Amino acid sequence: MSGVQWRGRLLESVSKNNNYDKIPYMQLATVRGDGRPANRSVAFQGFHGGTTGVLFQTDSRSPKAAEISLSSWVEACMYLPDTQEQFRLHGQASLHGADTPNDLLRQERCRAWAGLPHEIREWFSGPPPSQIPKSPPEAFHHAVPGPKDSPADSFVLGLIDVMSVDYLDLQQGRRQLFTRPHPDERWSLTETCA
Ligand SMILES: Cc1cc2nc3c(=O)[nH]c(=O)nc-3n(C[C@H](O)[C@H](O)[C@H](O)COP(=O)(O)O)c2cc1C
């Protein structure tokens, strides 16, 4: 029940904070190979079906993808300025490309791809991110798949299997911790001091 509660609250908060062209961003922290943290902005792509799994999209060739394959532990932090709320989502991430056996994830990946502007879709057929270019950009003359085509191979959906949520409402001075020690267990809710 309380899992449903934080999910509903996040969606409601996102709809109330419809600035930034209506795209909510979150800071996604991963663990580097040397144990140090890495953090970057990613767009919140909604929930995986009716679950509490959180979706984001990225390039399978990026450092963050390599970090997730080494250690799946992540934390995503979303601040919603109009309502002064923060959600810290802690859990384990997995990446899903064309070969994912999950039908719904395949559909969600295609839908996310279709929603990308052309200039972003182009990146996924371009040189690998974060590398010093070995050849000029003109060398990358790969056709860019259209919104209705199969997504580029490097385009992957990240799925965060959320295991705890630290919710802070600055206006109300309220903090709640939602936890689920195991995916099969029920969510529990603890009110804590802000
Ligand atoms: C507002 C904003 C939104 C972004 N959204 C995404 C995103 O949804 N997915 C993504 O892979 N990178 C996104 N980026 C770029 C990342 O923040 C990051 O620079 C890039 O993915 C490289 O990260 P990495 O080297 O840690 O893999 C976004 C950047 C900004 C500033």
Automatic annotation (TrEMBL):
Species the sequence originates in: Apatococcus lobatus
Gene3D superfamilies per UniProt: Electron Transport, Fmn-binding Protein, Chain A (2.30.110.10)
MF (Gene Ontology): FMN binding
Protein origin, superkingdom: Eukaryota
Region annotation Disordered: where it falls in the sequence: 128-147
Protein name per UniProt: Pyridoxamine 5'-phosphate oxidase Alr4036 family FMN-binding domain-containing protein
Ranges of residues in domain Pyridoxamine 5'-phosphate oxidase Alr4036 family FMN-binding: 5-96
Phylogenetic placement of the source organism: Eukaryota, Viridiplantae, Chlorophyta, core chlorophytes, Trebouxiophyceae
A Pfam cross-reference name: Pyridox_oxase_2
